[in-house]
Amino acid sequence: MEMNLKIKVANRLIGEEEPAFIIAEAGSNHNGKLSQAKELIDAASRGGVDAVKFQLFKAEFLYAPQHPAFSIVKENEFPRDWLAELTTYANKKGILFLASVFDREAVDLLMKTDTPAFKIASSDTVNLPLLRYAASKKKPIFLSTAMCNLADIYEAIEVIRNEGNEQIVLMQCSALYPTEPSQVHLRAMDALKGAFRRPVGFSDHSLGILLPPVAVARGACAIEKHFTLSRKMKGPDHSYAIEPDELKLMAQNIRTVEQSLGSLEKVMLPEEKKLARRESLFARQDIGQNKEITAEMIEVKRPATGVEARFFLAFVGRKAKRAIKKGDPLLWQDAEA
Question: What is the pTM of this model?
Answer without folding.
Answer: 0.89
